[in-house]
Amino acid sequence: MTLPQSPLMGQMMNQPLLVSGIIEFAARHFGDSQIVSRRVEGDIHRYTYRDCHQRARRLANALHGMGVALGDRVATLAWNGYRHLEAYYAVSGSGAVLHTINPRLHPEQIAYIVNHAEDQVLLFDLTFLPAVEAMSAICKQVKHYVLMCDRDRMPAESKIPGLLCYEDLIASHSDDYEWPQFDENSACTLCYTSGTTGNPKGALYSHRSTVLHAYGSALPNALNVTSRDAVLPVVPMFHVNAWGLPYSVPLSGAKMVFPGAALDGKSLYDLFEAEQVTFSAGVPTVWLGLINFMLQNKLKFSSFRRTVIGGSACSPAMMNTLMDEFGVEVIHAWGMTEMSPLGTAGVLMGKHRELPQDEQRKILLKQGHAVYGVDMKIVDDDGKELPWDGSSYGHLLVKGPWVISAYYKDEGGDPLQNGWFPTGDVATIDADGYMQITDRSKDVIKSGGEWIGTIDLENIAVSHPAVMQAACIGIAHPKWDERPLLVIVRRPGMDVSREELLAFYEGKIAKWWLPDDVVFADALPLGGTGKVQKNKLREQYKEYKLPTA
Ligand code: ADP
């Protein structure tokens, strides 16, 4: 029920929630806090929020000079770094819309989304010069290309007409710029889903949703970002706005450490140590690389204490290694592009404090508790809500002020079901409100009318010492519809047989969940955000014949 306007309205300042307010606040109240970036050029760049704010205003003037107006789209193809952060604030702060593009997408997909978004300006890192040169001819509506580098790194000639140098733009414009005020519901940033099936679709965040998400995600029950932290977002700024860290870190006044393009174990470890990083965030595959490097070289962290892991499930093996070997607290989080992205984060409640460690781990391994700003429920195939008992599983639906209401240009029609957004995930919720993802509904294995969740099967496989990565997929079966096939990547120099692996499942799962077969692969296909592409695996093993019992 919605009431008419109250006869007595509140009398607080009605200040729109705009992202420009975040960098303004950081520059004024945490002006000296540092932003450290490993540049594509290889060196380390260091400046402060005050400097960032100043250069963002110069860039805002430059964009104005290029004719970029309220609501126009400005794209970036860039790693995590200070120039990218300046663009975050200059573009959105001036009323235009920042479209962050995932450079790991197929070049045709990149051109598709640049055209779909009707980007007018494209800012890009040196790494992507060849890719941008190749696509500039088919991206007709892009009026200006800006290479984010120093003057001396500009190519002598380029196929891109009128290619501009970022540093020239900054140098030739004044920082005399006042952030404009406008409706907080205006579009702020645009992110495309990775489009594993069909074309990518755009999620268009508003200033209001972005600021609320920044507040909500910084809370102690969520990412707990404080001015005492040095935060290294490994998650890229092109992957759902680096999970909001480019906003929540400045509003908390924390030191920001950007890794640039160097995401291998050694480069990350060196930066964690050199900058005394305390907190980080990334998908499981990057932690895998870092952990392997550290184990091989018998290294420990001296300052790193807490990390968020999300994007795909964090296995018990990974959580145990980080917590027990390296003393890093793991916050398992879940979200999606359509949710800005944060939905849940896993931290314990007071009443869990006395539980034995293995019981606590079981709670922490779930995808977590809803963050205020997100409501969720699980429903059956008919849309009937299921109980929060930790075992009933169903389709997970969400709603809240930072959850999508429609895709950009209304692509795909109305995505909502009675005001709730269906996430495409299958989950349980326990009595304390902790949600656990069983699977994506398109990955779940349907065997004899029942569902087999692949995440559990994969988690067990990777807890075997000889297994580095595991993926489970459904293979067509004449009697049961589908049966699980386990695809394994072994640790270098280690061996394990099919029989040993299958025996390893004994006592850990219901008998009918046991994979019908195991195959060994050199690598798993990974998508642009570091997730295993199960659709590719299913395609690869389409003709696979399971052994008959
Ligand atoms: P895309 O869906 O395009 O790959 P997203 O980054 O939006 O890109 O992915 C969201 C999906 O990722 C969720 O719907 C869920 O299936 C999966 N996911 C995210 N975090 C987790 C997690 N902690 N555990 C398991 N799955 C997760």
Could you describe the 3D structure shown?
- Belongs to the ATP-dependent AMP-binding enzyme family.
- GO terms for molecular function: ligase activity.
- Residues 457-531 form the AMP-binding enzyme C-terminal domain.
- Residues 26-408 form the AMP-dependent synthetase/ligase domain.
- With 549 residues, this protein is α/β, with parallel strands linked by helices.
- Helix content is 28%, strand content 23%.
- Helix 2 crosses helix 3 (82-93) and helix 7 (207-218) crosses helix 9.
- The model has no long low-confidence stretch (mean pLDDT 96).
- Adenosine-5'-diphosphate is lined by residues 193-194, 240, 310-313, 332, 334, 336-337, 367, 423-425, 437, 440, 529, 531.
Could you give the topology of this structure?
Elements: H1 20-29, E1 34-38, E2 44-48, H2 49-65, E3 73-77, H3 82-93, E4 97-100, H4 107-117, E5 121-124, H5 129-135, E6 144-147, E7 164-165, H6 166-171, E8 187-192, E9 202-206, H7 207-218, E10 230-233, H8 240-243, H9 245-252, E11 255-258, H10 265-274, E12 279-282, H11 284-296, E13 306-309, H12 316-325, E14 329-335, E15 342-345, H13 357-365, E16 368-370, E17 375-379, E18 394-399, E19 421-429, E20 434-440, E21 445-447, E22 450-452, H14 454-462, E23 467-477, E24 481-490, H15 498-504, E25 517-520, H16 534-540
Parallel strand pairs: 1-11, 3-4, 3-5, 4-8, 5-6, 6-7, 10-11, 10-12, 12-13, 13-14, 24-25
Antiparallel strand pairs: 1-2, 8-9, 14-15, 15-16, 16-20, 17-18, 18-19, 19-20, 21-22, 23-24
The chain binds adenosine-5'-diphosphate.
Adenosine-5'-diphosphate (ADP) is lined by residues 193-194, 240, 310-313, 332, 334, 336-337, 367, 423-425, 437, 440, 529, 531.
Family: Belongs to the ATP-dependent AMP-binding enzyme family.
Keywords: Fatty acid metabolism, Ligase, Lipid metabolism
Organism: Pseudoduganella aquatica
